[in-house]
Amino acid sequence: MEERDKMNKPINKQFLNLKSYKFIKLDHLEDHRQLLAEIGQLLSVTGTIILSEEGINVALSGNKSSVEQMFEACKAIPGLQNLEPKSEFSEDCRFSKLKVKVKQEIIKMDQPQIQPSTERAPSIDSLTLKKWIVEGKDDTGQPLKIIDTRNEFEFQLGHFKNSLNLNIERFSEFPIKIQQKENCLKGFKLVNVCTGGIRCEKATLYMMEKGIKNVVQLDGGILDYLQQTNGYSWEGECFQFDDRELLSV
To answer: Going by C-beta distance under 8 Å and a sequence separation of 6 or more, which residues neighbour residue 75?
Structure first.
């Protein structure tokens, strides 16, 4: 069915927006950065690509052909051939230019012992989380608690009903903030959530390292959950850092 605006005019969603990330050991980062930057300039694609020894984080926007070709260039990096995209179309291009950067981490936590490229924490999909929210417990009968790993600004704009707010200003604060809440986590099945899933990869491993075993992460993050469940039990908006837009529910 064709989407229409408030004036009942057809909405022309011509720009492809693509996101992906992968934790994997990468090398020759500067060589990859230069090549991707050159390809991106030729394709006139916009977005942000972060390369690190721990992996890649990709957010692209532009016409469909250019974005798809740019993503294939990312997949050509050794080890990234199975990089999985998540995409949607929009009326407007989400970025003004392309930035390709090399950083120490694709998501900064300052906990070098946490290595999602070598070990992945257990996870659940969006429909399972909805089922648990409806029932108030997991499949074993353990009561549910959702932990929001995003920052305070994001949480205040929108969050799961009754979720735990860690009052984080930046993700690198997560380790100390979660330790401060440790006493209220006992006896619950814990589900870490974040916008697209990348922060939860590290957050969940960190909690497991500290002896918190009853925790899982939400695959695909809040964005996937909103798409799959029509925002069940979500209150407010979802802020996306890459395009500075609010996703209304």
So the answer is: 81, 82, 83
